[in-house]
Design brief:
By secondary structure, this protein is α/β, with parallel strands linked by helices. The protein has helices at 3-24, 253-281, 283-295, 297-331, 335-380, 382-385, 390-403, 408-433, and strands at residues 32-40, 45-46, 50-59, 62-63, 67-70, 73-76, 79-80, 84-93, 96-97, 101-110, 115-116, 120-129, 134-135, 139-148, 151-152, 156-165, 168-169, 173-176, 205-208, 213-214, 218-221, 237-240.
């Protein structure tokens, strides 16, 4: 149903936000450098981790620890003895990174003398590893295209529209690439406005140069099976078609009926359990919201739309407020305040996402189901309509059947969600508007 993908998306967004800030949090304990251009000149040695935010970053010297950099153009000509974590438009590595590299940008380039001691994990429009460069362990890339001409000691894992291998890979290669039967092999390369890097032209799909060497297995997914040059792959070659080329068997009518019936049963059980819990814990809330919908259904629909708009607006504003607060605290080196800003911002996002997911996924449907059950029982068995539980049971069963009907189901779900959210929004406004009783 529509509610399940929405809940998954919201929860995933919250988890992704937590992950991003958990990775970025260690930077709070260290000083950094900022400005339009930050340069570490040749001969300078930074004996600690270095954090940089600028328009242009050039490292010609040596950094004994990690380097975390955010800029339009980042160029590493010297040595980073720890990890490199960078994001920008252009990221160029001509020197040495003794540990791992984690980079994201429009254009990523490993020059002829680039040396990476551990893994390279990158994401962007284009990755080029020129001949002479080396990666000490694995190379992982996701993005538009990749041209790998430098040596990679272990494995390669690429998900992109285009991939060309001209290098020696010591381990396995796994490539999930675009359609090799589309595009022009003589088309110009990707053009990034303002970029200082000339992006190479890579043929759509997978291309393997006869001079390349793969020491392990090759597993690739593309629309067209390739003729792999002899002697290139030492291990087994496995080809798979893209999922959009696979023929998915259509379920039979019996299978559709069985699955539909099971979905109805699952919906009924879930809403009944959650509804009983709400009736037990918050009976006045249920009574107030159902009466609100009954008295003013059209305004409830309108307030439901406002509720959704307010949720997404808050979801946008909170990260912006966190960013502004973080930048201000960082410029003033108030690390304690910065930690509080991040903590309470993440807590607010988590609470917002969870509460909205519960409201639209369960509470709204239970409120409207109880009201529907009361209205139906009022015309059949008026005494049962005043029962605490029968309206919930009748309403949930009918609602579960309605949303299982093709075409009608999504419309019913949307209407119910808006009505329920509108009632919840109005209830919240009334609670906030109430003033403490005079003593």
């Amino acid at each position: 149903m529509l509610r399940k993908p929405l809940i998954r998306i919201l929860v995933s967004a919250a988890l992704l936000t937590v992950l991003i800030f958990s990775i970025a949090t260690p930077a709070l304990a260290f000083d950094g450098r900022s400005g339009d251009t930050v340069t570490i000149p040749a001969g300078e040695v930074v004996n600690d981790d270095l954090y940089i935010s600028a328009q242009t970053v050039v490292v010609d010297g040596t950094i004994k620890g990690d380097l975390v950099a955010f800029a339009q153009t980042i160029t590493i000509n010297g040595t980073v003895e720890g990890d490199l974590i960078a994001a920008g438009r252009d990221i160029i590595i001509n020197g040495t990174v003794k540990d791992g590299v984690r980079i994201a940008g429009a254009t990523l380039l490993l020059g002829e003398k680039a040396t990476i001691g551990s893994d390279l994990i990158g994401a962007g429009a284009s990755l080029e590893a020129r001949k002479g460069s080396s990666i000490g362990q694995d190379a992982v890339f996701a993005g538009g295209q990749a041209l790998l001409a430098g040596d990679i000691v272990r494995n390669v894992n690429v998900a992109a529209g285009s991939l060309e291998l001209r290098n020696a890979v010591g381990g396995n290669v796994k490539a999930d690439v675009g359609r090799s039967d589309q595009g022009d092999s003589n088309a110009p390369g990707i053009v990034i406005p303002g970029s200082s890097i000339k992006v190479p032209s890579v043929k759509p799909g997978l291309t393997i140069d006869p001079a390349a060497k793969i020491g392990g297995t090759l597993e690739y997914t593309t629309s067209k099976q390739l003729n792999i040059p002899a002697g290139v792959v030492a291990g087994k070659v496995t080809y798979g078609e893209p999922k959009d080329n696979e023929v998915v068997p259509q379920p039979t009518t019996t299978e559709l009926l069985i699955n539909g019936g099971l979905n109805i049963v699952r919906t009924i059980i879930t809403l009944l359990l959650f509804g009983l819990l709400l009736l037990w814990l918050f009976p006045s809330f249920i009574k107030t919201t159902t009466e609100r919908i009954k008295a003013a259904p059209l305004p409830s629909l309108g307030w439901g739309i406002v509720h959704i708009a307010a949720f997404f607006f808050a979801l946008l504003i909170i990260p912006i407020a966190m960013l502004v607060g973080g930048i201000a605290s960082g410029l003033l080196t108030l690390w304690g305040i910065l930690g509080a800003v991040l903590f309470f911002g993440l807590l607010a996002i988590f609470a917002l996402v969870v509460s909205f997911a519960l409201a639209i996924g369960f509470v709204a449907q239970i409120i409207v189901s109880i009201l529907g059950g009361k209205l139906i029982l009022a015309g059949i068995q008026p005494e049962m309509a005043e029962n605490k539980y029968w309206p919930l049971v009748i309403g949930v069963v009918i609602y579960a059947i309605l949303i299982a009907i093709p075409f009608l189901g999504p419309l019913v779900w949307c209407a119910v969600a808006l009505l329920g959210l509108g009632a919840v929004w109005h209830f919240g406004r009334e609670m906030l508007a109430k003033k403490p009783a005079a003593v």
